[in-house]
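Methods: holo model generation. Sequences were used as deposited, without trimming of termini or removal of tags, and paired with ligand SMILES retrieved from the corresponding compound records. Each pair was processed once, and we did not select among multiple samples. The sequence and zinc ion SMILES for this entry were:
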Amino acid sequence: MSKPLKLSDILLREDTNVIHCPSRDGHHIHHESVEIFNRSEDSKDGIHVLVSEHEVITDRNLKGNPSSRCHGLIVYFCCEECSAIIKMKLYQHKGSSFVGMVFGETE
Ligand SMILES: [Zn+2]
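and the model returned the structure below.
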């Protein structure tokens, strides 16, 4: 189960520049990998890049793009204080850009 969160919700907390875990509100989360989806508006074709600890994968698979029509970006974090797998999503939709955080628990 995940809940959406706005970047402004994160940055307006007391210790402003620290990103908190959306699951348990801890502040020891680690950036692990980044996924970039780049395509023209409504194009079925585009570029996908995944950068993780030991590799870079480049292909044209847009599955998982947080934007249904344009560009998207996902930064993956793990939490030191709980088992949440956290995604920060940046995506474009109808001329505006959005940010949000979602999380899921590992088993
Ligand atoms: Zn956590």
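The helical segments are 7-11.
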